[in-house]
Amino acid sequence: MTVSEGHGPVVGFVGGGQLARMCALAAAPMGIRVMVLAASSDEGTSEVTPNVIIGDADDPVALRAFAEQVDVLTIDHENVDHSTFADLEAAGVAVRPGVGALRFSDKAYQRVEFAAAGLPVPDFVVVDAGAADTAAVINEFAQRHGGRVVLKASRGGYDGRGVWILDAADVPGFLAGYEGAPLVVEPLLPLDREVAVLVARRPSGEIAVWPVVETVQVDGMCDEVLAGGNAGGTVLDPDLEAEALRVGAKVAEVTGIVGVLAIELFVVNGSVVINEIAPRVHNSGHLTIEGSETSQFEQHLRAIVDWPLGPTALMAPFVVMRNVVGGAAGDPRDRQAAAFSMVPEAHIHLYGKTSRPARKVGHVTVLGDDLEQCRERAQLAADLLAGDRFADAMEDSHDNREQSNE
Amino acid sequence: MTVSEGHGPVVGFVGGGQLARMCALAAAPMGIRVMVLAASSDEGTSEVTPNVIIGDADDPVALRAFAEQVDVLTIDHENVDHSTFADLEAAGVAVRPGVGALRFSDKAYQRVEFAAAGLPVPDFVVVDAGAADTAAVINEFAQRHGGRVVLKASRGGYDGRGVWILDAADVPGFLAGYEGAPLVVEPLLPLDREVAVLVARRPSGEIAVWPVVETVQVDGMCDEVLAGGNAGGTVLDPDLEAEALRVGAKVAEVTGIVGVLAIELFVVNGSVVINEIAPRVHNSGHLTIEGSETSQFEQHLRAIVDWPLGPTALMAPFVVMRNVVGGAAGDPRDRQAAAFSMVPEAHIHLYGKTSRPARKVGHVTVLGDDLEQCRERAQLAADLLAGDRFADAMEDSHDNREQSNE
Question: What does pTM read for this prediction?
Fold first, then answer.
């Protein structure tokens, strides 16, 4: 940590998407300098910092050269080469999250380790798609769980990709066409709802946890996040919230994360089971920018440069975030006036990304005293930004709240 | 407004200091692109946007070339060449604030126009330092106001510079050594306190006004700003607040400002009189970043690109801002951990400027339920960032709350 002397710490992001972008916006006021190793110049961070280097993060030489310019190395996304990161860590680079925590991005590894640590995970089995007995193993599992299974690629999936819900009879056909990482086989759970816990952890083990949020998924992609409920309408049962927070803190400890960690949980028959984790800032925490005393982006930076963490209480009784997803109707960067005219209190966050169907290009946050009103206002603002055709499409699909596995 | 089509509006700042920097940080999430014409590359904005052009804003050719790249031209500071701005405005460039509002930066012009509009201003007379009868005019004014006068250079002063408090007997000697703009002569008023009103105004005349804040000056420089008091301990008398808001709205109308305007007011015998105005975002509004539903920086941008304005209510019962002023003890960018360790709830804002004695290099904001506790916490965080020697110096000078004219 000698790069920074006299000018505040320098944090290097591998990847230049919206997560690095929102971290960069949180870093500047605190006197943290951000550098970015981006795959291309049109990633969102190039609008908010001049320190974007175009390079291939999987190239050990490029990554090492980048690491030499920073005090702390962190990630915009977890699709990074673990062996390169491990080499850097062994050479003394402050890699945060460390490789030990990054390994939990592998769903097979994660399920095995969490089960061993006594954490609540769904029943599961890990299979190699190419092994001779795989179809039989999955079939046996399916018969014990109502005749259907959820298959998850252990690596490389996101936003609903890499997840398949299949009848037992369709498994052999699927396997014949599948090439890729080992599969985690799980039951199709009857979900009450989905929630998420965000935890920040310093190298010392000090943690900060935000209030639990409810996440609403559409087509396997997070669409809406709800926080609040201490007074008036309740978002979450207090016992359930306490259990979710306990699981979140335990996951932070088991993974040894340094930085922010998101834990997505299924609520099944009133109890929580772990769906997924992300060893980084996360869509479920975007509402903390205005909605919490300390945003996930500021907190991540404070954790990885080893500064004391901030308080996490909500700034309003209820906070609702809604994603802005690209549609066929043009670019949200031409529609802010329309959104503000109907929802002047909306906090608009656009990511500097070209709008494409099903691509997250921004989000909107609304704070207030009434949950349903916050939801309506946030939806209205997001729909106005996304354009009408997307709004119509959303209305059609929105009642579908089956298990969606993001 | 054709530069931006498909990518959101482009706003050009003349000047690249902390006000442009904080605007740039507010612009990115809303999908507004910021460009900066800065005098040198070490101004604060170059850390937060790649679009910094180094050039002389007083050079009409450079300014016109810059203006051609943006949809709206605005300012980081009001020390700009009015005739060049007038030429641009005449050529159809959206200059915001317009030249009509910029003229009110001249204190002589401002006093005359405000008095004519029936706005509350101190008794005053404008003199030309070189005229034969100037000493006699000032002496006559002084005799009517207790034997002392406040002299203000009509142009070029800031942070207490360009303001002199003199006994009548010392005026001739002062005038002999003075060269510069005409002087505004005013009485030394017995101040109850100083307050400020921030107003944002769109081209249509639509305005938004924030709750009135109290400002605490030290050595002619704003040191602390207090907001809040609706419940519990009162910062401001409700009648006084209503009067201040009325004056703020009227000043916005009289000046024809487009963007944010700050009005600094003296409270004398329970009534407000106008001290100064600034046709831009202002130190007294920095606490709106976390302390208000819409920050002054976001609101300024919304006003100048002609988007609907946001709500301005406070986010907590009390909000306190304290400036971080450079001292002899090093750079605040090495001291964030110390500040967060004692005041984890502090919102730290550093400006990317080299620390020098008496230079504002950042500010700290604290929200809470108790005014005195917020003040103590904000002071502690600011002192820790500024370094101990500055903290000691502040303690010595802090009870001095005479008229300070910033």
Answer: 0.93
